[in-house]
Amino acid sequence: MTRIPLATIGYESAPQAKVIETLKSAGVEVLIDVRAVAASRRAGFSKGLLSASLQDAGIAYVHLRELGTPKEGRMAARRGRTAEMREIYEAHMAEPAARLQLAQAIEIARDRKAALLCYEADHRGCHRSILVEHMLEAADFAVENLQPSTL
User: Bridge-partner residues for 4, per DSSP?
Assistant: First the structure.
């Protein structure tokens, strides 16, 4: 049986063009934005502009806000308290709205090559890694953590 490809990507240190180039090179067909707040001070990463730029590049965009980290979890992550962030995020993932959007993400990723997007460059300190763990409980995904060039 063939494993289902699934990617993750963070835009922390890369310009939008490099993120999109990395997604295209990896064959990503749909980007699943897993930020609680799809706004960014980084140019090109607010929901509207990112969605339009991805569409121009032939990549679909879906925002699943309930898969984002609650504010207190984001604050813990910024302070380097990964274990605290994980605890907060796991509690959040038990909520019905989060479970529903998790099911949506799994269905999207089963159908087309998807990438989960959030801010942090390093997936190990980001809720994307926890989200992937939940997705792996439902399907045999082959996970690739994409690293866009910062140039």
Answer: 141
Rounded to the nearest 10 degrees, how much is the dihedral formed by the CA atoms of 61, 124, 130, 128?
Answer: -10
Encode 38-56: b = buried (16+ Cβ within 10 Å), e = exposed.
bebebeebebeebbebbee
To the question of pTM greater than 0.90 for the whole model, the response is: yes
* Residues 77, 69 contacting (CB under 8 angstroms): yes
Give the Cα separation of 7 and 109 in Å (integer). Answer: 9
Rounded to an integer, what distance in angstroms lies between the CA atom of residue 108 and that of residue 129? 18
Sheet holding 30-33, edge to edge: 60-63, 30-33, 114-118, 4-10, 141-146
pLDDT by residue for the chain (151 residues), tens digit each?
A: 689 999 999 999 899 999 999 999 999 999 999 999 998 888 899 999 999 999 999 999 999 999 999 999 999 988 989 999 999 999 999 999 999 999 999 999 999 999 999 999 989 888 999 999 999 999 999 999 999 975 5
User: What structural domains and CATH numbers belong to the chain?
Assistant: 4-145 (3.40.1010)
